[in-house]
Amino acid sequence: MTDYTQYAATQHPSVTPQVPDLETQATGQEPQDLRLWLRMLSCCTLIENELRSRLRTEFQTTLPRFDLMSQLTHAPKGLKMSELSRLMMVTNGNITGITDQLEKDGLVERLKDDTDRRSSLIRLTLKGRRYHRRMQRAHASWIQSLLGGLAPAARATLFDLLGDLKQSTYARLPAA
Asked: Domain HTH marR-type, which positions (predicted)?
């Protein structure tokens, strides 16, 4: 039994992993950094897959559509597609496809950019804002539920440690 399986069995006796995750399949001979990376990846994948499933089931939408709408809630006047692409860390082509779908559903609109005639601004419609508010409330509840197995102090510590990791990693990236 791996350390995670033992921990899970003692902390959550009714929740034992059905399928070992990546880091518990490791032999223990791998460097700690690799095992840590695999654990973080496993957690992210597990949570992301659940969010994707719930968005699909409860709102008939996708995580990328939700993410794009979330970005637009912070920019009531709208954003250029290139800005959305940068914020979401995806290609302009991906943004165009998602925007086309959302526009077809009446959730976003394209506006002429007064400062640049070659581009347009994307912004939420009233229907889009209302729809996103409902999804956002559900999303927040899902996140609380999924992370609720950790004590508040453990969540705070994990948040701080991941912040340290983010800063440390960023400092080690080659200059762009």
From this structure: 27-167
